[in-house]
């Protein structure tokens, strides 16, 4: 059994979905990461569109902290805005489809 299989069998339960029955803006991220680790890029994008901008932001943050890029802070600022916009936008779209099938 690989570690990816282990991850699939030990997914965390979303407290918001568990208690209220509604998905939160982070729902789908775990499955998206697992799909990406398996090499399923399109499936990963469908499950959680905000994953790639978040990964870019985290990588850029690490690089900027290490190398102090001249415009790194500005790039990070825009990256945060783009990531948050995609996460909120996909959440809203998911909620609209949930309540209007």
Describe the structure.
By secondary structure, this protein is mainly α. The protein has one domain (26-96). The chain has six helices and no strands. It has helices at residues 3-9, 15-20, 29-37, 41-47, 51-67, 72-99. α3 (29-37) packs antiparallel against α4 and α5 (51-67) runs antiparallel to α6 (72-99). The protein is globular.
Write the layout of secondary structure elements.
Blueprint: H1 3-9, H2 15-20, H3 29-37, H4 41-47, H5 51-67, H6 72-99
Helix pairs in contact: 3-4, 5-6
Entry keywords:
mainly alpha, 6 helices, 101 residues
Helical/strand content category: mainly alpha
State the end-to-end CA separation. 38 Å
How many β-strand runs?
A: 0
The overall pLDDT, averaged over residues, is 94
Beta-strand fraction estimate? under 5%
Question: How many discrete domains?
Answer: 1
The run of helices and strands is: HHHHHH
How many helices? The count is 6
The largest pleated sheet is described as: none
What is the helix content? over 70%
Low-confidence stretches: none
Q: Characterize the overall form.
A: globular
The value of Rg in angstroms is 16 Å
